[in-house]
Amino acid sequence: MKAVGKVKKWLRGRPPRGKWTLLRRSLQLFILIMFSIQLFTGGVLFNGSLASSRPIDIVLNQTIALPGMEVNEIYIPMLDPIAFLEMLAATHYATIESLTAVLVVVALYSVLGRFFCGWVCPMDLLFSIFEKKLNLPNQPRHSTFHTPTKAEKAVPIIALIAYVLLSWALGYPFYTTISPTSNASKLGSAVLGVIANVPGAAAGTALAYGAFVVFALIVNVVAEKVFGIKRAWCRFVCPIGALYGFVMNKYDPFKIKINDVSRCTKCRLCSMVCPMGIDVMGDYVLKNKDVTDYRCFRCGRCVEVCPTNVISLGFRLKRTK
Ligand code: SF4
Ligand code: SF4
Predict the structure, then answer these.
(1) What sections of the protein cross the membrane (predicted)?
(2) Which of 171, 206, 304, 312 could crosslink 18 through cysteines, CB 3.0-4.6 Å?
(3) Does residue 57 have a pLDDT over 90?
(4) Which domain holds residue 64?
(5) What is the helix (H) or strand (E) element at residue 66, kind and residue range?
(6) Quick check: is 86 in a domain?
């Protein structure tokens, strides 16, 4: 049977290439490439990093006079909420532009939930590659899917508070500086700048960006190899996804939908393949409610393996339960 063959491949360490996996890998790569070539596109398409960016940045030939302001550049400002909180703590003020930029991002992920971690963040792509290269199991073992304890849920919240306090004490945005997500999106551009001898590009800067990315990779590999903890950085250290997960995953209309429970064969494949350790079958399918778990980053793996199409990924405005 086609579905069984796919799952066998998965269990051998080669995930099936369902449409959701292909789509999100394409989007992750596209965003990474756009940030990497920004030096050569003049930043018109993508400008900045995943912490603070301006997708579509067009400098106008002439200045347009609007009531109370003159406009000579059009762009979409985007600012990660963690970067905003840390900057607020470090500098004690916010500009209209930073407020607008963070509201754009909050509005986007109010619709898409924790989508950022599975579809945008380049670290998910890198973690997956390294998991395969190092021959780590790329699905949690049967015992690792579980309902999170209060302590487990508290760790990323405590980390977030600690980062904001550290930013306040140090006077610069602490996590944003060390974030592998932000550094990975700057790394390609820094390396290409050194190769192309672009003025201002320095090998030391590229090495520093790379060091933060490698550090997060090492943390994840050691946590999984030594302690059996899957994606430790994403679940316990990085506050970006935690914020989207705890706040947006409860209400966003883009979700993992549970459709017809009567078709469920209780094979539990959906829980076994979840990279974030969610017991999809036990906590959601059998309770006939859409997945609102803060850990779910809408990767669609559970959808791809379900042999009877009980689960789907898409929009549903109304909450099931
Ligand atoms: S519940 Fe499904 S979509 Fe959410 S993280 Fe797990 S496998 Fe991915
Ligand atoms: S929802 Fe699908 S994958 Fe999950 S236990 Fe039921 S039949 Fe199996």
Answers:
(1) 27-46, 101-130, 151-170, 190-223
(2) 304
(3) no
(4) 12-254
(5) strand 57-66
(6) yes
